[in-house]
Amino acid sequence: MMYWNTPETFDVIVVGAGHAGVEAAFAAARMGCKTVLLTMSLDTVCKMSCNPAIGGTAKGHIVREVDALGGEMGKVIDITGIQFRMLNATKGPAVWAPRAQADKVAYSNEMKRRLEKTPNLYLKQGTAEELLVENGQAVGIGTKEGIAYRAKTVIISSGTFMKGLIHIGENNFSGGRAGDPPSVGLSASLEKHGVKIGRLKTGTPPRIHKRSIDFSLTEEQPGEPGIKFSYDDEGIPRLPQIPCHITYTTEETKQIILANIHRSPMYSGKIVGVGPRYCPSIEDKVVRFSDKERHQIFLEPEGLHTDEVYVNGVSSSLPFDVQLAYIRSIPALRNAEIMRPAYAIEYDYVLSGQIDFSLACKTIDGLFLAGQVNGTTGYEEAAGQGIMAGINAACKVLGKKPFVLTRSEAYLGVMIDDLVTKGVDEPYRMFTSRAEHRLLLRQDNADIRLRGYGYQLGLINEQQHARLLHKKETIEKEMVRLTTIFKQFDDRGFSLAQLLCRPENSYASLLLQYPESVVDHGAEINFQIELNLKYEGYISRQQSEIAKLSHVESIRLPPDFDYNKVHGLRNEARQKLAKVMPQNLGQASRISGVSPSDISVIMIALMKRDQEPPTCG
User: Fold this and answer.
1) Do residues 372 and 349 touch, judged by C-beta distance below 8 A?
2) Which of 12, 61, 141, 539 lies at a 20 to 30 A Cα distance from 206?
3) b vs e for 410-423, b when ≥16 Cβ sit within 10 Å of the residue's Cβ?
4) For the chain, which domains are there?
5) What is the value of pTM for the model shown?
6) Residue, of 476 and 612, whose pLDDT is higher
7) Which residues pair with 246 in a beta bridge?
């Protein structure tokens, strides 16, 4: 196809303005790169195609990490959220996770407003049709409209749009999501340049009209005050807060679904893509968990200025008549009016093993991939990859080394390491259980862990950095001071630090008991002091474990290391290692199919390589 080249040449092109694309564009532009964000429609920036919510278990951790690095997701949900909660608050602090319902229209509008006001960032409407490659280097994007945008680097964050196919029962049709066309040419273009493509599936539940719900038959779920995602307070007032509601499926629901299971394209064989194991459709639930009498459903409002309600927990690809029947089998929804039917969507993604730890494509120089195109699911996972891809595309343009986070530094490090070393054969979702060091990677300390990096990258300003340094200094000094002040308790002397470690005590309770000795530094810093002292032993143990393992992570594997020449290596390990090409021995040890004995063999081969005399020229 012939293209008209724009007069401008860019540093970074970002394809797709979903949750990955916008964070990539913000990061690249703020690092000084001339960036263009290309999207099919400028009216659907960061559109919440599925659940109108941000955060949740492990996902809330990622949002706070994105914010700590200088991203926007946390700031935008703080001012467009209509209900906030802290999940898992009755458990240990490692799994506490903020979650918020969003006014989805307000969220999209606010994100677009911020994009429009960002220097170095240019918004363009168009459909990406072809990746332009010259001599193995990505040099731009050609659009269906016949326009070519040329740049030094390209980030593809296409979501579910690459050859998207929507299924509702026996009917299917092309679409990137309901109401939007797919991107057809981009997959073929990637394949033409040697990128291997696979197929995944996800889905969404029906939306119903609020007036058709009998709320007297539901449990009200109110929000909680004081929950926020961003470490920066922009002084913008929050929207009015409203509750969600909980209800349950019934035995009738189950029987309706089982009687029509053959009409689901998941079970009839029409869908070939693999769906998310941890977010199953309602038909999957009744089949896989047949012993369960009922399944929980959350009725979640989609905004303040709409009566649409998201029926969380019943995503489906069943025909509309079956959807209506099973929805109305729920007592609170006997008169439900479905406004938008549930559907499943199949889409193309880039098969595992083709990106490195900077999210750069291994076979096309200057190409980066972020979000669902890498096989993940979820707005938060997409945003996390987006900011990392944007940073690394900018680093490449600026001649800086790639920015890579380790598994012990961030959930972002865990996720990207999983994508690179373990790969995906089903949509990847982040869980706290995936992180070995989750007590260190809490959602509440993401700024302490990562904001310094954001400052070094130019994404965090001087004022934000000064607040971080003050916070860290205050926490460290106060933890030491509390060990030096003693109080009589049960006829014995205990330091305030020791008293704070008792399960019945909190920083707030010590403030009341000993106001002359305990200083109120504000809820955020008080909480950090309390947690660091209460869990000091556990934290020290995890830090020791990380230090012991660090020597393995520091053993570099040369980029030209030939695993085919390593004697004693099992064939499976040889194939997996050659595919992933890990950067160090620690990463090699986490590859599925690589055993401890394989690692020992590699270590011996490395030692022999180092001892070999250099060849003469």
Assistant:
1) yes
2) 61
3) bbbbbbbbbbbbbb
4) 4-203+347-447 (3.50.50.60), 207-227+238-343 (2.40.30.260), 464-545 (1.10.10.1800), 554-611 (1.10.150.570)
5) 0.92
6) 476
7) 219, 298
